[in-house]
């Protein structure tokens, strides 16, 4: 066998085991018994020990010295394997195993602390997670910036300074537009109660309308909506609130964007490094364009209005135009995942700055709640009322995902570029969406971006699909146009 073929055979088993680890995580968030948390932590640690040993196996270095790629696909596969190997050998096996165990247990402690509004109960385990992540980051950075090293797990090739520059350019534009919008009368809110089972039934309809293949996936409920898996088994979760069905519907559409990216990657790349999304920023570009530019558009909300009327009857909003405004209402709120398009990125910027401070040892975990509340009041103009609406609302830090948050806003930036190109490529887009038909839009995304998986770098992936180098300008233009129209600015 060629060295490349031997390397890929070894890698496929590693990828398969990684999928198993992901499935354990899905199970933990959906159906695992509450009392199983400590055992699950041991299981995750054992599996991570095996995975770390494979990812840092000296045989990989030998194969990498011997391989001679014959085409662009092989070159890309080798690039990803080499990058993974170089990172794996820098992290001690014991540290990798400990991180897997502690973050698995921390996830359960976060959920309990969130339910009890008890930050103090979460602080000790978060301190442990932060200390371990700092240690891992220092090993990966090899003398460089710790936080930059962490970002590479989620958005390869990007630095904190580059992200900060984008955020600094976006923030004043967003703040000014928000101020203008909030001076206008608020749209009429939904009224009544919305049965959870009926919400899940309509969520399933929405998932399928956006192309989610339920023969290779599942839709379940979890505390924090997420997508898990790739290839032939891609699962999503959502959540319900009897007073706010939009939480369920738009969380579902968002996670379907992630899931369809994974489901639509070429089957030629199955269980290889190219067989998953190339970065979390690119992943977010898919979830955000599905959720916002398509799912919250005037055309699609007109169709959704009729679907909701048929299922729930009168809910206090009289017509599709008023419903479009209700769906896109800009209003005060604490929760990132429920934030409108205009304010969402401000939530991300808050988290980005705080986690930079945590990783650079400029902020102690015991002071996190105070720092969060002060920053939130400064950015949004009102105070956090309870921890579950503040520093306990997100699962990410409990599971060690430092460097992940900024990719949410990078995804919005990328989606702005993609949507501009999509509208030019699909002139009948609004007519299709008005019928609940997303096939032309999602087909364009599948053809131009999703099928290629990790073939190109994140920036080149967006540039290949949209025809432009990513910048925040299309996103800001889209937001100004949309919300100026919505609020008669």
TrEMBL record:
Cofactor(s) listed: Zn(2+)
EC assignment: 3.4.17.19
Keyword Heme: no
Cofactor note as given: Binds 1 zinc ion per subunit.
Pfam family, one: Peptidase_M32
One Gene Ontology molecular-function label: metallocarboxypeptidase activity
Role this protein plays: Broad specificity carboxypetidase that releases amino acids sequentially from the C-terminus, including neutral, aromatic, polar and basic residues.
PANTHER family listed in its UniProt record: CARBOXYPEPTIDASE 1, METAL-DEPENDENT CARBOXYPEPTIDASE
Name of this chain's protein: Metal-dependent carboxypeptidase
Organism lineage: Bacteria, Pseudomonadati, Pseudomonadota, Alphaproteobacteria, Rhodobacterales
């Amino acid at each position: 066998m060629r060295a490349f073929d031997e390397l890929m055979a070894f890698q496929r088993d590693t990828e398969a085991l990684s999928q198993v680890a992901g499935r354990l995580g899905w199970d933990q968030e959906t159906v695992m018994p509450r009392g199983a948390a400590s055992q699950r932590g041991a299981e995750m640690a054992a599996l991570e020990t095996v995975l770390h040993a494979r990812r840092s196996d000296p045989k990989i270095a030998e194969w990498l010295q011997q391989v001679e790629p014959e085409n662009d696909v092989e070159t890309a596969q080798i690039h990803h394997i080499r990058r993974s190997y170089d990172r794996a050998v820098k992290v001690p096996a014991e540290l990798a195993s400990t991180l897997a165990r502690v973050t698995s247990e921390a996830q359960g402690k976060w959920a309990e602390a969130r339910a009890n509004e008890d930050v103090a109960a979460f602080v000790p385990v978060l301190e442990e997670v932060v200390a371990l992540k700092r240690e891992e980051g220092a090993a990966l950075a090899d003398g460089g910036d710790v936080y930059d090293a962490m970002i590479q797990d989620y958005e390869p090739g990007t630095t904190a300074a580059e992200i900060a520059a984008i955020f600094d350019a976006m923030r004043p534009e967003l703040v000014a537009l928000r101020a203008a919008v909030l001076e206008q009368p608020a749209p009429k809110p939904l009224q009544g109660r919305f049965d959870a089972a009926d919400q899940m039934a309509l969520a399933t309809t929405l998932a399928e309308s956006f192309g989610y293949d339920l023969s290779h996936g599942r839709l379940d409920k979890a505390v924090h909506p997420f997508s898990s898996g790739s290839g032939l088994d891609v699962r999503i979760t959502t959540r319900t609130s009897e007073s706010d069905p939009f939480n369920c519907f738009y969380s579902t559409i968002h996670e379907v964007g992630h899931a369809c990216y994974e489901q639509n990657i070429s089957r030629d790349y199955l269980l290889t490094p190219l067989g998953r999304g190339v970065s979390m920023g690119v992943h977010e570009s898919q979830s955000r364009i599905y959720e916002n530019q398509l799912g919250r558009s005037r055309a699609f909300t007109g169709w959704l209005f009729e679907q909701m009327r048929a299922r729930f009857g009168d809910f206090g909003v009289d017509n599709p135009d008023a419903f479009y405004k209700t769906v896109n209402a800009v209003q005060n709120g604490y929760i990132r995942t429920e934030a409108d398009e205009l304010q969402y990125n401000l939530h991300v910027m808050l988290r980005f700055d705080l986690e930079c401070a945590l990783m650079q040892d400029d902020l102690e975990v015991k002071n996190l709640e105070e720092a969060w509340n002060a920053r939130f009041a400064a950015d949004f103009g009102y105070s956090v009322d309870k921890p579950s609406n503040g520093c306990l609302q997100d699962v990410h830090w409990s599971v060690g995902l430092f460097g992940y948050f900024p990719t949410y806003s990078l995804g919005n930036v990328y989606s702005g570029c993609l949507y501009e190109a999509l509208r030019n490529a699909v002139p009948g887009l609004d007519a299709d969406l008005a019928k609940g038909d997303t096939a032309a839009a999602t087909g364009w995304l599948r053809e131009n971006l999703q099928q290629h998986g990790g073939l190109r770098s994140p920036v080149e992936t967006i540039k290949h699909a949209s025809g432009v180098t990513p910048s925040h300008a299309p996103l800001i233009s889209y937001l100004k146009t949309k919300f100026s129209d919505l609020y008669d600015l």
